[in-house]
Amino acid sequence: MTTQLTTPIADPASVDAAIENRLSVRAFLRDKPVPRDLLDRLLQLASRAPSGTNTQPWKVYVLEGATRDALCDKVCQAHDSLREHPELETNFRADYDYYPRQWVEPYLGRRRQSGWSLYGLLGIAKGDKDRMHAQHQRNFRLFDAPVGLMFTVDRVMGQGSLLDYGMFLQNLMLAARAHGLHTCPQAAWNDYASIVLPHIGASAEEMLVCGMALGWADPDAPVNTFSAPREPVSAFTHWVPQPPQGVAG
Fold it and tell me: For 62-73, how does the pLDDT look when each residue is reduced to its tens digit (9 = 90+)?
């Protein structure tokens, strides 16, 4: 009898392929729905993520059709209003710091490289605020994905639950990729939690962790040729040296 311990992974190359070919897709086929049973299966697979003392802190809200479109409209309107009236910024704040308050290297350089590479691919010149605004707003149209996912966590939970959540989200993205789908995880929604949470029916005790677009990628969209580079293993790995023989640790 095989168990979770002993079940062989018959095709590890497919696991590798799902990881290596996951990317943030920014153009989906709007009119190609995702079957409900497939969504259910993906979420079931995602739930196998580890969590501290098996707390399983994730809560998922699935938006499709008119409910999806209504949220997109609300947040796009708020996004436009905020551009015209920056003083409204205090009304649109994330519940936690996703990014650092003070950027330092090498993170600032990586962020800039990613942003300008994407804008360059789309022909958006530096300083073109109108097109930058429009491209950023594509987040709030879920890049035309038929499925929008909003993830919340109970506010009572600690920071470790966000680590657990990251593993849940990665499971979901890899499972989607293995089934031919693509995703785009989105922290952009977090600033509009005051709109998102009531719309999805979340309680006041919940905090928005992020959103995600999910669907079938548009194979003809130039934006989907963009894939952010990764640092080599040698850049982030430190092999701790062994002490000399006979020397206690």
Answer: 999 999 999 999
